[in-house]
Design brief:
The structure is a single chain. The protein is an alpha+beta fold and about 550 residues long. It has three domains: about 90 residues, Alpha-Beta Plaits (2-Layer Sandwich); about 240 residues, FAD/NAD(P)-binding domain; about 190 residues, no CATH class. It contains 16 helices and 25 strands. The strands form seven sheets. A seven-stranded mixed sheet has the order 16-17-20-15-23-21-22. Strands 9-8-7-13-25 form a five-stranded parallel sheet, covered by helices on one side. A hairpin with a 7-residue loop joins strand 10 and strand 11. Helix 4 packs parallel to helix 15. It starts with 6 loop residues before the first strand and ends with a helix. The structure holds flavin-adenine dinucleotide. The site of flavin-adenine dinucleotide has 44 residues, from helix 4, strand 19 and helix 15. Flavin-adenine dinucleotide (FAD) binds next to helix 4, strand 19 and helix 15.
Length: about 550
């Protein structure tokens, strides 16, 4: 028997909304589709909103397709219309929302001290989950606090000398602090909504909880992060900026258990260590490997960044209806065939710009960022293919050596001062250097070079094949309007720290939790944040019920 007064939440799929039509119209649309009286619909939350820009019968009809979670009184879905939707699968009980609360933690469990290394999304959300449950957390970050991040970056742009401890990759918020702040994932995790709600509470736009292309933008990220830090401090988290983890201190009795960390600010004692160092802490990886922390090589993405005038992408994606929709995005895939390996677009930043995501002197690596308004007038994305141990060797750090070698090659080809080598897409395909330097948003400027020769041949072939294909979807993509700038080598990390599936602890260790992109378990802001949050939950559940996971 159902309780007719209790609220039930169902997900209703595929409500359409015209461009410019207010979201408030969704409640009426849902009510009509389900045959509900106004008082029977107690609430509605948009779960997903995506632009459908496909061609139909030779014409492009732009509209949003929305999935909504409707709260209805028990028994309200007995009508014919609702039953039809249930039978067709377009109406289903809404997926459960996760929780970060762990029951059963006693004072002794809460007294265990957690050390989180790295203040990127993985570290921050591990710390958040731990602190929410009353555990004392110290968070180490080798780079500066957000307020002090811009000075060394300005200095880098002026002097062309990079600060290895304060740069685009190292500092509060991690590698994504100067990014497009894309926070949509392709993972289906019940904690996702919970983390997004925390970001909304810190000032992110509420639409990030459902927009299929949700992005925050660097300008807004810089307002959200201080609020997130303030809330973490309120929960008891102790932040130590400009403090680098050097080595772990292991218990002396042979069990591989962490009791403290040696840092640039001295010894920090702990009962568990969450390692969220990101994909560029190559020095830290080496030091930990020397202490017996397991590392293995993993495949990673490699390629070039491309930029086009934004209107070229807008025209192909939207036709004339661009004003209401903002800068258009794309997500392009070129499958493997007999000629070349697969390649795809990654980290597309509409109305964005190319940045030098450099943390070590003498190496060149690009990435992309944008502000929330997506207003630069340029569209940029990475076009990458995958390289694995078969190409660069199976040694734990062979991928890192391969990355470094290529990053140095591009640095030298650019003239050794962070000027980036560049080539138009048309010239890349024709195998010739571009004649004149073209406008680029890359801050250090570009110089003409044969990127097709600087890349490993298999990457060149994969990118060339992808250009031919992408040009069919976005006319002009492979023309002289497209400028390749390189190298894009850190879209993902080249190592993994193997961990136990159940405990999430590094293999052979009892209380060392490798997290996020640097440990090989994430490929973006949200996946890193979710990895951190989930590892913290596993740890807390083990503290609450020690026999369950060990
Ligand atoms: C320019 C740019 C744009 C990006 N845009 C997007 C985007 O739009 N959407 C998206 O999903 N992803 C984007 N990414 C990728 C995304 O930023 C990363 O996937 C994500 O930040 C990984 O999170 P993480 O917590 O694992 O590591 P990181 O964010 O890299 O954080 C690691 C932190 O650990 C610190 N650290 C390292 N070693 C030590 C040590 N020994 N001691 C103390 N601290 C240490 C570092 O200083 C750093 O702050 C972008 C990346 C860059 C560089």
């Amino acid at each position: 028997m159902t309780d007719d007064h209790a609220l039930e939440i169902y997900r209703l799929f595929d409500l359409s909304l015209a461009v410019g039509e207010p979201e408030a119209r969704l409640a009426e649309k849902a009510r009509v589709r389900l045959g509900l009286a106004p008082e029977e619909l107690a609430g509605l939350r948009i779960a997903r909103k995506a632009l459908d820009a496909r061609w139909r019968n030779g014409a492009r009809r732009l509209e949003f397709v929305c999935h909504v979670d409707v709260s209805v009184r028990g028994g309200a879905l007995r009508g014919v219309a609702a039953k039809r939707e249930l039978a067709s699968g377009k109406l289903k009980p809404a997926p459960e929302v996760g929780t970060v609360r762990v029951d059963g933690l006693d004072d002794a469990a809460r007294a265990k001290r957690a050390l989180v290394v790295g203040s990127g999304p993985a570290g921050i959300f591990a710390a958040w989950v731990l602190a929410k449950n009353g555990v004392a957390v110290t968070l180490l970050e080798r780079g500066p606090a957000l307020e002090e991040r811009s000075r060394p970056l300005v200095q880098f742009h002026r002097s062309r000398v990079v600060d290895p401890e304060a740069n685009l990759l190292f500092g509060e918020g991690g590698a994504g602090t100067y990014s497009d702040g894309k926070i949509y994932t392709r993972v289906d995790d019940p904690l996702e909504v919970v983390l997004l709600e925390e970001l909304v509470a810190c000032g992110a736009p509420p639409s990030i909880a459902y927009d299929s292309l949700a992005h925050i933008g660097t300008d807004k990220l810089h307002r959200i992060l201080p609020e997130l830090r303030r809330r973490l401090i309120e929960l008891g988290v102790r932040f130590l900026f400009r403090t680098r983890l050097e080595r772990l201190v292991l218990r002396g009795d042979g069990e591989r258990s962490i009791v403290a960390a040696e840092t640039t600010a001295g010894i920090v004692e702990c009962d568990a260590c969450f390692l969220a160092t990101g994909h560029s802490a190559r020095d830290t990886w080496r030091a930990l490997h020397a202490q017996g922390v397991p590392f293995e090589a993993k495949p990673f993405q490699l390629g070039l960044r491309i930029e086009h005038p934004q209107e070229l992408v807008d025209r192909a994606r939207y036709g004339p209806a661009t004003a209401q929709l903002g800068a258009a995005s794309y997500n392009l895939i070129s499958k493997a065939d007999e000629r070349a390996a697969a390649a795809y677009s990654f980290c597309m930043c509409p109305g964005g710009r190319i940045v030098a995501s450099v943390s070590e002197p003498g190496l060149l690596c690009t990435n992309g960022m944008s502000n929330s308004r997506h207003s630069s007038g340029w569209a940029t994305s990475a076009i990458v293919t995958t390289f694995g141990p078969a190409e660069f060797g199976a040694g734990a750090f062979d991928g890192v050596a391969f990355q470094r070698e290529l990053e140095r090659r591009f640095f030298v080809a650019g003239g050794g001062d962070y000027t980036a080598p560049a080539q138009t897409a048309a010239d890349f395909l024709s195998g010739r250097a571009s004649r004149a330097a073209r406008h680029s948003t890359y801050p250090f400027g570009t110089t003409s070079a044969r990127l097709d020769e600087l890349l490993p041949p298999s990457a060149r072939d994969a990118l060339a094949r992808s250009l031919e294909r992408f040009d069919r979807q976005i006319p002009g993509f492979a023309s002289a309007d497209g400028l390749f700038v390189g190298l894009e080598s850190r879209s993902s990390g080249p190592v993994r720290i193997p961990r136990d599936r159940a405990t999430r602890s590094a293999v052979g260790f009892t209380n060392l939790y490798p997290l996020g992109e640097g440990a090989g378990y994430a490929g973006g802001i949200m996946s890193a944040a979710l990895d951190g949050a989930n590892a913290a939950l596993v740890h807390l559940r083990a503290l609450a019920c020690p026999s369950a996971t060990r």
